[in-house]
Amino acid sequence: MGWGDGRDGMARPPLPMGTHGEIWTKRRAGSSSGSYVARCRFRDFDGVTRWIERSGPTRSAASRALQDEIRTRTRSVVSAPLRPESRFEQAAELWLVKLDAQVADGARAVTTADLYRQRLRSIILPAVGQWRLYECTISRLDGFFASLSPRHGAESRKTVRTIVSLILRVAAQHEAIPDNPIRHLDPIEKGSRKPCALTPVERRHFIDWLNGRSDDPNEAREQEKARRRDLPDIVTFMLGTGVRIGEALGVRWCDLDLEGVPVVDGDSMRAVPIVAITGNIVRHRGRGLQRHDGKTETSLRIVPLPQFVVTMVRNREVDGPEGPLFPAAAVSGGLGWKDPNNMATYIREARKAAGMDWPVTSHTFRKTAATIWHDSGILTDRQKADLTGHAKISTLTDIYVARGELHPAGAAVMDAAWMDS
């Protein structure tokens, strides 16, 4: 019995890349031990069709060995193209390779990549991972996103939509689907929500509660817990500077200049105490807490310190120039970084214990600082955006401008608001 040459007298279309033709098996010529050989045509990813073969003691064993070789060739090529019948999870695997490359190049933040992986693993793949790419139609995807509405908020659904769109873009680039269907879905709208900031009465109440000594044993226990967690000083620092929670926890003693930098004030000079926001504490998947260079380029900024923050900082114990302003006890001894996620939980617990029945979060303190600067009428939109470290003046003017100046008026406004509380 011969192999056959695959010709039937008519020209046949080439095999799709990464696929094989009919598998032929026969006894190996001259073999007395009953060895068999399986052989087939395989079109490699360089476009060339080649004969490949594997042997085995039986016909089925030889065929299995050849099929294993085909699978190995297919999996070993990262650029193996997706096809309409490929599963969504296969496209996701290729997208994750791109995501890792973006992180390595600095084009994508590690924290963003971790968030995308978490949403992919917990929400997307359990629901659509086994869909064939040709099944990812506009109507099916619309139904998928509609099913998320009762369990996930608008921001979470927007993140999920972004991930699905990026994965299907990979499928479209491989020509496995004619177009990215996400482009044709209705946008995910979220209801307008008024930014919540603490009123003067609320911020004074919360600070007084954190620093207080209640006669109620239960309340006193909660207040002592808040002080052990460093909440009075951290909340004071955030209210006075408007920084993000990760930025506050990333401040080192070398980032502070309590004596002040010289600033022209009319015809004279005066010293303005400052903090340089040069980093942000985040938790990286598999690496624990890390200090990186900030959320955006404009996150790296100089913020003037009001006197009530300077007074608070002077009362803290210095632990070397590179030591954190708000340290945590490290498991291996010494001092380390506090975890922003833990601190967010502690703030939530403290505000409940203080009798504040609306969701005060770490971001509330940032909004409170921004509101104080805005309501003062002294600072321009550009100055306020400089102080908060936004990548653009999105909530104010949405116009790109040159940034990075020190605005001492921000500290004066904060001190005035603190005295009025």
Q: Can you describe what's shown?
A:
- The chain is of the alpha+beta class and 421 residues long.
- It folds into 3 domains: 1-78, Double Stranded RNA Binding Domain (2-Layer Sandwich); 88-184, DNA polymerase, domain 1, CATH 1.10.150; 200-420, hpI Integrase, Chain A, CATH 1.10.443.
- Helix content is 43%, strand content 14%.
- It has helices at residues 59-76, 88-105, 110-128, 138-148, 154-173, 200-211, 217-228, 231-241, 245-249, 307-314, 340-353, 362-376, 381-388, 409-420, and strands at residues 24-27, 36-43, 49-56, 256-265, 268-277, 280-284, 288-292, 301-304, 327-329, 335-337.
- The protein has a 3-stranded antiparallel sheet with strand order 1-2-3, covered by helices on one side. Strands 4-5-8 form a 3-stranded antiparallel sheet.
- A hairpin with a 5-residue loop joins strand 2 (36-43) and strand 3.
- The longest helix is centred in the middle third of the chain and has 20 residues, at 154-173.
- The protein is elongated and about 100 Å long.
- It starts with 23 loop residues before the first strand and ends with a helix.
- Mean pLDDT is 82; it is low at 5-9 and 391-405.
